[in-house]
Amino acid sequence: MKIKIGFGILVFFALMALVGPLLIGADPAATSEDGLQGPSAEHWLGTTQTGQDILTQIVYGARISMGVGVLSAVIANLLAILVGLVGGYFGGAVDEVLSVLTNIFLVLPALPLIIVLAGYLPQRGVGSVAVVIAVTGWAWGARVLRAQTLSVRRRDFVQAARASGEGPLRIIFFEIMPVLLPVIATSFLATVVAAILAEAGLSFLGLADLSTVSWGSMLYFAQNGQALLIGAWWWFIPPGLCIALIGTGLALVNFGIDEIANPRLRTVKVKVRKART
Amino acid sequence: MRFLARRLGFYLLTAWAAITLNFLIPRLMPGDPVELLVARMKGNVEPEAIDAMRRAFGISDASLWQQYLDYLGNLARGELGRSITFFPTEVSTVIADSLPWTVALVGVATLISYLIGTSLGVLMAWKRGTWLDGVLPAATFMHAVPYFWVALALVFVFGVTLQWFPVSRAYGLDVMPGMTGEFAASVLYHAALPAITIVIASMADRILGMRNVMVTTLGEDYVVMAEAKGLTSRRVMWAYAARNAILPNITSFALSLGFVVGGSVLTEIVFSYPGIGSMLLKGVENEDFPLMQGIFLVISLAVLVANFLADLAYVVLDPRTRQESE
C-alpha cells in the first residue's frame, strides 16, 4: 500500500515535469498586469509580484528541479557504484583508502561545501550545479553498496565466475552489480531527493541559475519580493510543498521496501501489542 | 579506549582533508578566483583587498608545495585572510563574532529535537497500532521538507499574521547587549522561531529512525523475558528496549549533523539571525571567497567536534566499546 501511494506521487511529479509544460504551453517567465493575485479561476495558484502565473512556474520548475535532481543523482550513483563495488570487491588497501574517503565525505557538511564550490563556478548552469551537488552526495550510496558487496562477493556464483577465469572488472559489473540493483535503485531515489533539496537551497541563496525557473528560484524571488510581509502565501507555499511531497513519495517507497524486508515494522494492529498497553 | 582513539584518528584525518580541500578548491575550480572577483565586481575592488585575498589563498609565484605550507602556517596562527565584505576586518574576527549565535541556536535546537524525537519514536514503537501511528505520515512528510521553507511558513503564520514572535535579528533594538535579564529574555524571544524551525525540520528523522530500531528491539528475547518477569511497562520500555535501541540511533544522529547544520544555515538567513549562516549569505552575495571558505572550514570542524561528542556519548552508553581486550 505504502509503495503504491509513494509510486503514485513520484509518477505524478514525473508526468508533471515531462508532459506538464506541453499541456500548459505558456511561458513561465511571462509577466502580466495582474501582480500578486491570490488563487482564482484564471490563475489557479495566483500570481507573483510581476504577474507571473505560479502554476505555470511550478510545472516548468518541476523540469529544472527534478532534472537537476535526477542528473546529479545519476552522477552521484555512478561514483557510488564505482567506489563502493571496487572497494568492497577488492578489499585490502584499496578498500581502506576508498572507505576512508567515503567516510570523510559522509561526515563533511554537504551544503556549505556545495555553496563554496558553486561560488567559484564561472557559469552556474543546470549541468554544473548538478555536478557540484553530485560531488558531495555520493558517499552514502558508496557506503551502503560497499557493505552489500562484501556479503555478495563470498557467494558461490562469484566464486564460480572467478574460478572460470573472469576478470575482476567483469565480475564486479556483470556478476555483482545486477544482484545489487534493488539497493542501487533505493539509493538512487534517496539521492534524487537530497539533490532536489540541495538545488532548492542553492537557488534560495541565489547561487544557481536564476534566469531559469526552478522551485528553489521561486522561493528565492518570493523571499526577495517580500511575499511574506505582503501575505502572499500562495507564492511560497507551493514550491516547498512540491519538494516535500516528492520526498514523502520517495520515503513511502523506501519504507514499503523496508517493511517487506522486515515485517515487524508494519503498522498492522496486533492484539498482543494492544494487551501490553 | 581503543574505540575512541580510532575515532579521534579518523576525525583528525577528516579535519586535514577539509583543510586541504579548502586549499585546493580555489586552485582546482576553473578560473582564477581573484580575477573572477575583479570581473564580477567590475573593478570595484580596492587593490588592498585583492592583495589581501592573494595572501589569504597563498596564491603566489611559489611552488604549489610551498603555497600549501604557507597556507598551513597561516591557518595554525588562526589567520583566514581578510573579508572582502567587511574589509579590512579579518575573516576570523567575523566568524568569531557570529559563531556563538549559531552554536547556541543550533546546539540547543538540535538537543531539543533529539530528545523529543527519540522519545516520540520510542513511544510510537511501544504503542504501535494506536492513534500514535497517525504521527507516521506527518513525520514522513516532514522528513523531506526544506528547512528554509518551514522557516518561511513559521514567519508567515506566527510572525506576520499572528505577530506573536519577532521575525528577524537576535535581540530587540531597544535592549542593550549585556548580562541583564532583559537582554536574555529578548534573546530567547528572538531565538524562538528559528529554534522551532530547526526542531520541527530535524525531528522527523529522529522519530522515524528511533521507531524502526525500537520496533526491531521489541521483538528480542530479553524484552519478552523482562515482560514475563512482570516488570512494569515503563521499565521494560525505557530501561530494556530503548536503552539498547538508542545505540544505532546515536550513530545515525551523528551522521545527520552535517545535514542539520546545512539546514540551519538557510534557516538563519530567513530570520536574518546574526549567525554564521547569514555571514555565509553575505559572503556569497559579495563574492567574498575568503569569508565563504573560512566559514566552510569552521562549520566542518564544528561538525567533526559534534561527531566526536556523539562518539563520547556512545562510549558512555555502550559498555562494549570500553572493553580493553577486543
Automatic annotation (TrEMBL), chain A:
CDD domains on file? TM_PBP2
Q: Which segments constitute the ABC transmembrane type-1 domain? A: 62-254
SUPFAM superfamilies per the record? MetI-like
Entry's Gene Ontology cellular component terms: plasma membrane
Residues in the signal sequence: none
Q: What is this protein called?
A: ABC transporter permease
Report the membrane topology from the UniProt record. Multi-pass membrane protein
| Species of the source | Nonomuraea deserti
- Family listed: Belongs to the binding-protein-dependent transport system permease family.
Task: Tell me, in one coarse class, where this protein mainly resides.
Answer: membrane
Q: Which UniProt keywords apply?
A: Cell membrane, Membrane, Transmembrane, Transmembrane helix, Transport
Keyword Lyase in record:
no
A GO molecular-function descriptor: dipeptide transmembrane transporter activity
- Mind telling me which Gene3D superfamilies this protein's record contains? MetI-like
Q: Which InterPro entries match?
A: BP-dependent_transpt_permease, MetI-like, MetI-like_sf
The highest taxon in the source lineage is Bacteria
Transmembrane regions listed in the UniProt entry: 64-90, 97-120, 126-145, 179-198, 234-257
Q: Which Pfam families match?
A: BPD_transp_1 (PF00528)
Q: Where in the cell is it found?
A: Cell membrane
UniProtKB/TrEMBL annotation, chain B:
Q: Where in or outside the cell is it found?
A: Cell membrane; Membrane
One GO cellular component term: plasma membrane
InterPro entries named among the record's database cross-references: MetI-like, MetI-like_sf
Q: Which CDD domains match?
A: TM_PBP2 (cd06261)
Ranges for the ABC transmembrane type-1 domain? Answer: 99-310
Q: Which SUPFAM superfamilies match?
A: MetI-like (SSF161098)
Name the Pfam families for this protein.
BPD_transp_1
State any GO BP term from the record: transmembrane transport
Keywords in alphabetical order, please. Answer: Membrane, Transmembrane, Transmembrane helix, Transport
Question: Which topology term describes how it sits in the membrane?
Answer: Multi-pass membrane protein
Gene3D superfamilies registered for this protein in UniProt: MetI-like (1.10.3720.10)
Give the stretches traversing the membrane: 7-25, 101-126, 147-167, 187-204, 253-274, 294-317
Instruction: Spell out the family assignment given in the record's similarity comment.
Output: Belongs to the binding-protein-dependent transport system permease family.
Q: What is this protein called?
A: ABC transporter permease
